[in-house]
Design a protein that fits this description.
alpha/beta; nine-stranded mixed beta sheet; two-stranded antiparallel sheet; 10 helices
Length: 249
């Protein structure tokens, strides 16, 4: 039985939406909603932040928080520091993004299940089948190509693979294009190793951190979900999320 810990990296100084974790969505802040969704699946959850305001908000709703350095270049680096500070014995560290207040518990369960009875899984992430070609062509929606055992072969902002011999309008009928969702889990020792790696040439080219891991030979298992989530990157996303929340009520 694997021992899981979930860590939610949360920064205040977002370029597109400063203070995003503290923005209110209904009667709760975004960070509280993310935390509560993660706690529905994993018993031990922490928010890792570099900002006292976020730390105090997590304490206000009686959550766990840990202060980390403001100098981290990625959420993965922040999570590694948090794991070291928290201590304890954990087999797998789950990384839930701090701007996913509607992440489904089933998605976290699917991610964790990638480590069941499979010692070859070093890192896990999620993919969701695309439903329209316009989204496939969007470079802000990274694509995953997987092998026959469900491990990632490549991530790209480009449309991969190229479906030869068919009109582009028919591509979705010919190949199950898979959208990458930015939720991860790592074996604890692997998390420590990958945060010591320098940026790789593929990572720099595509601006996708996970390519650093593939280029260095790590195996990334891809769980498949059919649930859609609403990530919040901008004020416009927040307004859309508020409308969605009202409709659900």
């Amino acid at each position: 039985m694997n021992r899981f810990i979930c860590i939610i990296p949360a920064r205040y100084a977002s370029t597109r939406f400063p203070g995003k974790p503290l923005a209110r969505l209904g009667d709760k802040t975004i960070i509280q909603r993310v935390y509560e969704q993660a706690r529905r699946v994993i018993d031990t959850v922490y928010v890792a932040t570099d900002d006292e305001r976020i730390y105090e908000e997590v304490q206000r709703f009686h959550g766990n928080a840990v202060m980390t350095s403001p100098n981290h270049r990625s959420g993965t680096d922040r999570i590694e520091e948090a794991v070291q500070k928290i201590g304890g014995q954990w087999d797998v560290v789950v990384n839930v993004q701090g701007d996913e207040p509607f992440i489904h518990p089933s998605q976290i369960t699917t991610l964790c299940a990638c480590f069941d009875n499979d010692d070859t899984t070093q890192i896990a992430t999620l993919g969701k089948p695309f439903t329209d070609m316009e989204t496939v062509k969007n470079p802000n929606s990274p694509k995953i190509v997987v092998d026959n055992n469900g491990f990632a072969m490549y991530f790209s902002r480009s449309v991969i693979p190229f479906v030869r011999g068919y009109d582009e309008k028919e591509w979705l009928q010919q190949y199950p294009f898979l959208k990458h969702l930015g939720i991860y889990a790592y074996r604890t020792e692997v998390l420590h190793q990958i945060t010591q790696l320098p940026q790789s040439s593929l990572e720099v080219a595509e601006s996708l951190e996970q390519l650093r891991w593939l280029q260095n030979g790590y195996r990334v298992k891809v769980g498949v979900t059919h649930e859609e989530t609403i990530g919040i990157d901008t004020l416009e996303d927040l307004e859309r999320a508020k409308r969605w929340l009202r409709d659900e009520d």
